[in-house]
## 1
Amino acid sequence: PAFQTAIRAGWSDAEHPLRDPDLEILRDDPRFMVAVAMAKASASKDGPEAFERHWVTFPTMGTYIAVLPPDYAEDEDKTYPLVVILHGNGSSELGHGRVADRVGREGVIFVVPRAPHPHSGVFAMMRKPGWTWQPEDADNQAVDEQGGVQLYVNSVLAAVKDARKRYRTQPGPFHVLGHSMGGFFANTVAALHPDQVKTYFAYAGGVPEELRDQGLLEGIGKAGVKAWIVHGANDPVVPPQASKDAKKHLEAAGVDVTFHMVDGVDHGIADRVADLIRGWLDAQVRPSTVPTSR
């Protein structure tokens, strides 16, 4: 936080922090790389010599991709359950869209929305696009006041609504598969809109404190939403305790929880995690794929 404060106060040397041995302990912290990216932006000659940046919510247009089952074009009377994949912090709809290929496209329409904001650290340091739920260098409280969480949740619901118009999705609640940041938001979407979610799979995520403090988890239980909570036991990014706590709080709220702590797995979607996702799809999602008369 002190280094971020220095950047916001005008520090614009983006090279020295990468060489200073006193700052070595910070270099594994994603916030440090974001702050370095901010310093680079401040030093840019593309803007005025002195300026102040502020964050407000602007209406904008988002994007999502749809991954269709292999037999979609063969049977025009067949409808499919809808599964929303929520990507991790700094990933993208394309990166996590590949999960559909790993777990099988059969019997499911996958929709993968892009999170609404660029991840400045990924853009600046890795030279590739990545996305997140809030502006990376904005104050959390200010973003929350502007509806940062709700903005992302609304974008998910907008993608679902659009996909229902374009594709032969089954009516009724949809399913959510979230990884990391997406795991947190799988819990969030279910808590804020339990009537619209049938089941969800939250991997390497957790339950945000705000949902517990506002008593929103009880709505998941009352709606009969089934939750699968999965975490890698060796996760260095999101502590496994986050999912253990999620299980405890969800069960206390009356939610039907299936829980797996996967030994020897870190934060990535390892083969054993992909197998669990496939098991969730086979048990909770694919059985509802049936032909219907249109």
## 2
Amino acid sequence: MGLKVLGQQAPTADTDTTLYTVPADTATVTSTLTVANRGTNASLFRVAVRPAGAALSSQHYIYYGVSVPAGDAFAATLGITLAATDVVTVRASTNDLSFSLFGEEVDL
């Protein structure tokens, strides 16, 4: 199938926001996560992977309190395989961050 945009969000500050939910009967391999800071001050972000849409808990975080300088970006090559109904949740300390997740969905 090839890589595609799985999800994009510019969340409200200090709000847990769904970036991507794996469709039913699908597995997804994530490729790249980018976080762009559109603001004039540094901002912190969090990313969590919630298996089967579980309630957000401490063990779900893969990034926590990562700083992105003003006008800069963070990029990570992930390679995480997600199962059907897994949820990627993001959070930003300001209104200035944009998240994008790229990868490939595979029908089961």
